[in-house]
């Protein structure tokens, strides 16, 4: 087809306006075809896409930014917020930032057709055929891998399903066996309990006479031992009460102005003991308030109560003996600790200080030594005679 001279002039004008020949008639350079409907002149005018302004259509792509949204310059770098559309035939379209248009750089990663450098003097040959082919090849390989992966995944899912079904069936079978074994175990346990009960009944019946005979034979000896322990406990309680009263007197009446280290140490440790066991000091004070007759009557009443409660059977008496032995151990531990405090005070206090409370307690400890020695000798003699 021959083009007239007038057509040549028109095409030149269109080129100056940034218009290029397209598939239909003319296309605006850098314009996304999806927006083409907005670029049809109405009475020779163009309205910015944001609706903010109306300009002569001839000012579209005139390399001057008229619209705030950059929509009047899709094919130039005039508007920094504009975008340039690359058709990229043979590949896929791309959009370039306006400032990259005609910057002398071939941006093949976005515009493989080189259309972005239409007026920079830089020649950018169209490489879309080559790049598109490479891209499609990569996409095909990717799709192939995805399909292979999806197929393998489906195979694994099916294998897992089959394995789960097999394991479920296996578990159900094992569960059934377990329930049968549990039933057998319960039956065996019930039988065992029945046999054990029969054995206990037999032993109880057959040993009742033997136990009674043993009780008749050994009960008097255990009662005698329990009474020896009861007498020993009376003496040991008195020993502990005496030491508590001596230390209480030092704590209450010593002269703190002397600042005697031995006295302060004994008072401090005794204070910790009393704070932990306040009832012991109260019991010692009750012991101190009793006269000899009242104390003896109280101890006799304790012995009578013990006889009524503990001497009725071999088991009751044996239990009472065990309790008495535990109390004896506790009393001896307390006495050892309290005596160590008083003995340390006696050997360590400053004898040049005229502290009547300390000297009185030391004198009391000397008397305690004599009493305890006499009482322990009596206890040992009683045990030897019992043996």
TrEMBL record:
The keyword Nucleotidyltransferase does not apply. Residues 1-22 form the signal peptide. The keyword Signal applies. This is Glucosidase II beta subunit N-terminal domain-containing protein. Keywords: Coiled coil, Signal. GO terms for biological process: N-glycan processing. Residues 150-205 form a coiled coil.
């Amino acid at each position: 087809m021959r083009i007239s001279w007038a057509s040549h002039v028109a095409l030149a004008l269109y080129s100056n306006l940034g218009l290029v020949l397209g598939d239909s008639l003319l296309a605006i350079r850098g314009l996304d075809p999806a927006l083409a409907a907005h670029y049809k002149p109405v009475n020779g005018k163009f309205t910015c896409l944001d609706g903010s302004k109306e300009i002569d259509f001839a000012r579209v792509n005139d390399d001057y930014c008229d619209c705030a949204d950059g929509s009047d310059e899709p094919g130039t770098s005039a508007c920094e917020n504009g975008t340039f559309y690359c058709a990229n035939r043979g590949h896929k379209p791309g959009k370039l930032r306006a400032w990259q248009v005609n910057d002398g750089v071939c941006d093949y990663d976005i515009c493989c057709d080189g259309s972005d450098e239409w007026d920079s003097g830089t020649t950018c040959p169209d490489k879309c055929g080559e790049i598109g082919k490479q891209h499609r090849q990569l996409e095909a390989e990717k799709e192939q891998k995805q399909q292979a992966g999806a197929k393998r995944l489906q195979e694994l899912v099916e294998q897992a399903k089959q394995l789960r079904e097999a394991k479920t069936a296996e578990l159900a079978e094992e569960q059934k066996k377990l329930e049968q074994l549990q039933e057998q175990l319960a039956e065996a346990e019930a039988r065992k309990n029945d046999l054990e009960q029969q054995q206990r009944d037999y032993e109880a019946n057959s040993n009742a006479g033997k136990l009674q005979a043993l009780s008749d034979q050994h009960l008097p000896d255990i009662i005698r031992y329990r009474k020896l322990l009861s007498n020993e406990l009376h003496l040991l309680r008195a020993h502990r009460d005496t030491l508590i009263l001596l230390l209480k007197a030092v704590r209450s009446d010593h002269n703190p102005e002397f600042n005697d280290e031995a006295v302060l140490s004994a008072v401090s440790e005794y204070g910790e003991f009393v704070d932990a066991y306040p009832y012991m000091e109260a019991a010692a004070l009750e012991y101190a308030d009793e006269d000899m007759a009242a104390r003896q009557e109280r101890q006799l009443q304790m012995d009578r109560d013990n006889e009524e409660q503990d001497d009725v059977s071999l088991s009751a008496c044996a239990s009472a003996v065990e309790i008495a032995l535990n109390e004896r151990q506790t009393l001896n531990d307390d006495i050892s600790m309290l005596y160590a405090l008083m003995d340390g005070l006696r050997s360590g206090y400053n004898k040049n200080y005229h502290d009547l409370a300390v000297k009185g307690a030391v004198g009391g400890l000397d008397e305690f030594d004599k009493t305890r020695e006499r009482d322990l000798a009596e206890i040992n003699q009683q045990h030897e005679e019992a043996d």
